[in-house]
Write a structure and sequence with these properties.
This is Cation-transporting ATPase. The chain is built from 44 helices and 41 strands. It has about 1300 residues and is α+β, with helices and mostly antiparallel strands. The protein has an 11-stranded mixed beta sheet, with helices on both faces. A 9-stranded antiparallel beta sheet has the order 23-22-32-31-30-29-28-27-26, sandwiched between helices. The chain has a 7-stranded antiparallel beta sheet with strand order 4-3-5-6-7-8-9. Strand 24 and strand 25 form a beta hairpin. The longest helix is centred in the C-terminal third of the chain and has 40 residues. The chain is elongated, with a radius of gyration of 37 Å. The two termini are about 75 Å apart.
Length: about 1300
């Protein structure tokens, strides 16, 4: 129906495409019937409920509440405005009223973790002709309502997603990533494309286009970036900064502290501006990565039109040309070479093939069917469809070059793969740490304590005649001292320094919140190939099979059967990009080993089967032996490798003779492509190979056994999968034994198979139309051999794994390789201990009773033998006690996650599983969620979770889901701007994870120590101030200035500069501020501070001429012996706190390695000694200190004694810190060895069942069970004191 409507580009709306009806419909009844026939329930258009959202609540904004709020705000001098800005609950209560969702102008969204936000509702008033062009805007609008079509829709944009109100469900439902009808449209389009080469048959009805334009909106990932001025306006009203303004007003109005107030104001605004500029730059950088627009050739109205990419919606047909893709698309014809480095971190270009329903199945998913999906944001290096020509359809010459590759848009804007990764960065999962809330709680407690002390001081002030207003001003002044205004700025310093240090070693952080999370990691999972091992594989040998028997392994193609090099040369997904061979590295290695050449289809056509016919498919690739183009064969059907099927399959046409094509620039043996193949061969083969110029066996010898055979099937894949497909007679009797030997050595094994198509055995057109499973069932496959490849460990892998394990971090391998290969590599890199049996969990065989165990259990022993006759009751307790290790296959993992969940099996897998093999990308993501906060898509309740902090380290596109699901994802890639993970490392080594953990622990501990230091300083100064109030005194303006700026600010800023230790400590830092070690340490130091302030004042009374000073009622007496002593002792105590709270061990380097802080402390000590013993204009006039002589001076002897008090203060503070640390450790040891632990072990059901404390999961196990020599883990929880 596309020809009935005319598109008006000048009326293009960002969200809605307008159409105009050329021929109005006649007959009211006919119109009504047509609309009812088209109508689908609105709820069917949208996805199910968002699992992360608890509720939507509707609100309106009555005018009287707005007026009342304005009046109250003015009456409270703006205080109410600030409170409403800080508190959504207050703002909602004062300004809004509840209402039904269908009438709401605002919606309050509540998430599972308790976070709440308020958002506007947009009411869309679409033109009826836009969504349903059977009616013009003036024609029968009541018919739309009667047929069930809403005349207006309510839109909520939340976290870059679109939610529409559905009246039948009375809730907002999200727009699905891919439209629900998309699969039907895609399969129909693919079928039409196979029958008719005319792309106009692919165009959908205009009414569907209009619906999708309204639901999905503009295809533009626009991240709003506030200007620096707007960010400053937001930042300046943060509660901490407002508190600073309040403090400045108190200082100026109460004591005329102009100098100090100006300094604090300058520092405050410097912090505000710096924060705003940094935020603006970060958001702009992210917005630049997200935003992209271009002109696209779109099929609209029967021809291709050049349109902005913002107008694309799912279902659009576009011409694919080299350049950046504007959306996720499904390739319908042709092939593309795509660079996905920016999105996935994968540096090798990948080849994309057209969507085939018989291959991909009926349920298309962009994340699962990556071989035919072009992802938005990636670079198309080459796009072509040989043999196609769409003249007269308006295509530009550039799109027509080499034939036009067509694709259907699947996902747009933030629903695309790139958009989802950006959303995970913009809206990170809320971490379980509660540092800010704990800090505020503790500060609140300290503030209450200070108020209690001030009550005592206020009574004394009232007794000496101080005015009530003056007492109130002093009260507010004391609050500004007890709650340090610089606290929030100081707490971010350590994270900023850590990010800077990581950047210097090539690790780039896009999610700063992950730094402190990295310091709390409990488990780190690694991909194997390219992460634990080196990039690429080395072919060790080919083990051929002849008449069901293995022959000696070889890498000499002349010594192998003729079908082996032909299989290696044709069973792949490689393509030529200019003179470069691109595709999977494994395919490249095997193709290079064959010695054959790949011919570019564009260089010439082979005959007689160059063109596709009704019974013979078109050639996809042509390969020939070196120097023999006449012996070429053509790949006419290709089924790409998938992790679900664990194999790939090709249909090869034999007897393809050609002329001239092999002599082209990429065709012959002397071509650049052949030279590149030779170089690749020389660099990656480990055994002797035939020269590329050596003669090869004739390809036609394959069909000699079957007269008249013209086609053959080649397959390669996992041994267990190929074993299930080939004829039993072709399987050698020692197949399993030989496979076990190779996998036990850590070698990767691929099985090779072939099947000759017997003439007349298949119906006409079967080679073109049959699915992969149908071809494998119709053509008997036979095992041809085994390809044995080595993927050696990186030199530093084993050491890095050992370092993480020593740091009490569980390590696990998550790979797509065979389970025996994965177990062997895990042994080599220390993930699995040597000499310990491994429990293998695999899917139960088919036909097993429903109530039976969902997985098959077997034990793999160190000598390679397997015991399959084990029971769950016998082995599961051994797994939980550490007597058996645990390895799980992908199929076993799926079986365990099938409801109803078997917790008895899931718990050992999650708590003790070390090797996860044959895992798909979805399996990897689900594992990260199970180890962490639980499955995000769990369909049934009861699925367990561990609640651990999980890290993942990977290097390829298959790891993107796991990198995003983990708390800390580190992608090993060369792209600095990759959005594949919160952290990207250009170091191709897992030692990057050690650096991340070290910096995370260092930043976390530094943040805690800075918090302790700031709170300790505040309490020291607050108590000193209250002591002075009891004498009617107050410290001078410059005394406060020197203390706060030249002591506290410098020390707090430089504390975070200490680097992490080179080796990871056994215990990680504590997880919360309100933990016993931190709180006990802080309280002891506060007690020491108070005691020595009182001791200093007590010692001052021994001066012969000393008389207690009583200040004036207005508290403007600054120069007195009491203020001098307290000022000096405070300076010393600040330095002492800086030393005590700047412990390096165990996560940070020693204090003396922080040169800046060491120099600052030396200068501060020198200034303290100068101020203590010198009497000059600076000390008496600027610092308002007393002299040496009577009647109010401090003699030199007393000053020397005061220095001794400071030294003793330092010694006692250090002893108190050591006492708190080692005291808690001794108490913990006593508990762990005493009756309390024994009693707990008999009453705690978790410990009785052998479910270990989460901190012990995967930890190195102490010595052992004397009965069998196996290690048994201790069940005691880790020491709280040891965490310091």
């Amino acid at each position: 129906m596309g020809s009935n409507f005319v598109l008006h580009d000048e009326e293009l709306h960002p969200n809605v495409q307008h159409f105009e009806v050329e021929q109005p419909l006649t007959g009211l009844k006919q119109d009504k019937q047509r609309l009812q026939r088209l109508h689908r329930p609105t709820v069917d258009v949208f996805a199910g409920e968002d699992k992360e959202i608890v509720s939507f609540e509707g609100f309106t904004s009555p005018w009287y509440k707005q007026l009342l709020f304005l009046v109250l705000g003015v009456c409270t001098f703006g205080v109410l405005f600030l409170v409403a800005k800080w508190s959504l609950r207050v703002r909602t209560a004062l300004r809004l009223s509840r209402c039904p969702l269908k009438q709401a102008k605002f919606v309050r969204v509540t998430l599972l973790d308790g976070r709440v936000s308020l958002h506007d509702v947009e009411v869309l008033q679409p033109s009826p002709a836009a969504s349903h062009p059977y009616l013009s805007p003036q024609q029968h609008p009541d018919l739309l309502v009667e047929a069930g079509f809403p005349l207006q829709q309510r839109l909520l944009e939340y976290r870059c997603g679109r939610y529409f109100y559905v009246e039948s469900a009375d809730k907002f439902l999200p727009v699905p990533d891919v439209p629900k009808a998309f699969n039907t449209q895609l399969q129909a389009s693919a079928t039409r494309m196979a029958v008719s080469k005319d792309p106009r048959v692919l165009e959908e009805h205009d009414w569907q286009l209009g619906d999708r334009q309204q639901h999905y909106g503009s295809n533009e990932m626009a991240i709003p970036v506030k200007s620096v001025a707007a960010l400053i306006a937001d930042e300046m009203w943060h509660p901490f900064y407002v508190f600073q303004y309040f403090s400045i007003i108190i200082w100026v109005a109460g004591d005329q502290y102009y100098t100090y107030a100006v300094c604090i104001l300058v520092i405050t605004w410097f912090s505000i501006i710096t924060s705003a500029v940094e935020t603006h730059q970060n958001m702009k950088r992210l917005a630049d990565i997200a935003h992209f627009s271009c002109m696209v050739e779109v099929l609209r109205g029967g021809s291709f039109k050049l349109m902005p990419s913002q107008t694309l919606v799912p279902g659009d047909i576009i011409a694919v040309v080299p350049g950046t893709l504007p959306a996720d698309c499904v390739l319908l014809n042709g092939e593309c070479i795509v660079d996905e480095n920016m999105l996935t971190g994968e540096s090798v270009p990948v080849r994309k093939v057209p969507y085939n329903p018989s291959v991909e199945g009926s349920g298309y998913c962009p994340d699962k069917h990556s071989s035919c999906t072009l992802y938005g944001g990636t670079q198309v290096a080459q796009a072509r469809a040989p043999g196609t020509s769409y003249s007269g359809l308006g295509l530009s010459p550039s799109a027509s070059t080499g034939g036009c590759a067509l694709a259907m848009v699947a996902r747009t804007r933030f629903y695309s793969a790139k958009g989802q990764l950006l959303r995970s960065i913009l809206y990170p999962r809320d971490g379980s740490e509660s540092f800010i809330s704990d800090s505020l709680k503790f500060i609140g407690v300290m503030l209450v304590a200070c108020i209690g002390i001030f009550i005592w001081a206020a009574v004394v002030l009232a007794s000496i005649g101080a005015e009530p207003t003056r007492i109130v001003v002093r009260f507010f002044d004391m609050i500004t001292i007890a709650v340090p205004p610089a606290l929030p700025a100081c707490l971010t310093i350590a994270t900023v320094f850590s990010i800077g240090r990581l950047r210097k070693i090539g690790i780039y952080v896009t999610g700063p919140h992950t730094i402190t999370l990295a310091g709390q990691l409990d488990v780190v999972c690694f991909d194997k190939t390219g992460t634990l091992t080196v990039q690429g594989l080395e072919l060790q040998s080919i083990v051929p099979v002849n008449n069901g028997r293995f022959e000696p392994p070889s890498t000499d193609m002349q010594l192998l059967p003729p079908d082996v090099p032909q299989l290696l040369a044709s069973c792949h997904g490689l393509a030529l990009l200019g003179d470069t061979l691109v595709g999977d590295p494994l395919d490249q290695k095997l193709f290079a080993a064959s010695g054959w050449s790949l011919v570019d289809k564009e260089d010439g056509q082979y005959s007689p089967a160059a063109a596709a016919t009704a019974h013979a498919p078109q050639q996809l690739a042509v390969v020939h032996p070196p120097g023999r183009p006449a012996a070429a064969v053509a790949v006419v059907r290709r089924f790409e490798f998938s992790s679900q099927l664990q194999r790939n399959l090709v249909v090869v046409q034999l007897g393809v003779a050609g002329t001239g094509a092999a002599a082209g620039p990429t065709g012959g043996s002397g071509s650049p492509a052949a030279a590149a193949t030779a170089n690749l061969l020389d660099s990656h083969m480990s055994g002797p190979l035939v020269s590329l110029a050596a003669p090869a066996p004739a390809a036609q010898s394959l069909a000699a056994a079957v007269p008249g055979a013209t086609h053959v099937l080649y397959a390669k894949g996992s041994p267990e999968m190929i074993k299930s497909l080939v004829a039993a007679s072709s399987l050698p009797p020692d197949f399993d034994r030989l496979l076990a030997e190779y996998t036990r050595e850590g070698l990767r094994v691929l099985a090779l198979a072939r099947g000759v198509v017997v003439p007349g055995s298949l119906p006409d057109g079967a080679l073109s139309s049959y699915s992969q499973q149908q071809l494998e069932a119709a053509v008997q496959l036979e095992l041809t051999g085994l390809a044995v490849l080595a993927n050696p460990l990186r030199p530093d892998t084993a050491g890095a794994i050992q370092a993480l394990q020593k740091a009490q971090i569980r390590t696990a391998m998550v790979t797509g390789d065979h389970v025996r290969t994965a177990v062997s590599v895990a042994h080599q890199c220390n993930i699995l201990p040597e000499g310990r049996p491994v429990l293998l969990m695999d899917a139960a065989p088919p036909g097993q009773p429903v109530d039976a165990c969902p997985v098959s259990l077997s034990v793999l022993y160190p000598d390679g033998s397997v015991n399959a006759s084990v029971t769950r009751t016998a082995v599961l307790p051994q797994v939980m006690m550490g007597e058996l290790e645990c390895a799980v296959t992908g199929k076993g993992f799926d079986a365990l996650l099938a409801p109803p969940y078997d917790a008895e099996l899931l718990q050992p897998m999650l708590r003790r599983g070390t090797v996860f093999a044959r895992m798909s990308p979805d399996n990897k993501r689900d594992l990260m969620e199970l180890l962490g906060s639980g499955l995000q898509t769990a369909a049934a309740p009861g699925c367990p979770k561990l609640g651990l902090h999980v890290g993942f380290c990977g290097d390829g596109a298959n790891d993107c889901g796991a990198l995003k699901a983990a708390h800390v994802g580190v992608s090993l890639c060369e792209a600095e701007a990759s959005v594949a993970a919160p952290m990207t490392s250009r170091q191709q080594s897992i030692t990057s994870m050690i650096s991340v953990v070290a910096e995370g622990r260092c930043a976390l501990l530094a943040t805690y120590q800075i918090f302790q230091f700031i709170v300790g300083y505040a309490m020291a100064q607050a108590f000193a101030t209250n002591l002075m109030y009891t004498h009617g005194l107050q410290m001078g303006n410059y005394q406060y200035l020197i203390q706060d700026l030249f002591y506290i600010t410098i020390l707090a800023a430089l504390m975070g500069y200490t680097k992490p230790r080179k080796e990871l400590a056994r215990a990680k830092p504590v997880g919360r501020v309100l933990s016993l070690p931190l709180i006990l340490s802080l309280l002891l130091q506060i007690a020491v501070v108070i005691v020595f302030q009182l001791i200093a004042l007590r010692a001052m009374r021994r001066i012969p001429w000393y008389k207690s000073t009583i200040g004036t009622p207005d508290l403007r007496t600054y120069k007195a012996p009491e203020t001098t002593v307290i000022y000096l002792i405070n300076l010393a105590q600040f330095i002492i706190l800086g030393v005590v709270f700047n412990k390096g061990y165990p996560h940070r380097q020693p204090l003396w390695t922080n040169v800046g802080m060491l120099v600052a402390m030396i200068l501060q000590v020198m200034f303290l000694i100068y101020s203590l013993f010198s009497v000059d204009a600076f000390t008496t006039k600027v610092q308002t200190m007393v002299g040496r002589g009577p009647p109010d001076g401090l003699p030199t002897a007393f000053r020397a004694g005061l220095l001794l008090i400071m030294v003793v203060n330092a010694a006692v503070a250090l002893l108190a810190e050591l006492g708190s640390t080692y005291g808690l450790r001794l108490i913990d040891r006593a508990k762990s060895s005493g009756w309390l632990q024994r009693r707990r072990s008999t009453t705690d059901p978790v410990l009785r069942q052998g479910l270990l404390h989460p901190m012990h999961i995967g930890m190195p196990l102490p010595k052992h069970s004397p009965a069998n020599g196996l290690h048994v883990p201790s069940l005691q929880p880790p020491s709280g004191a040891a965490l310091l």
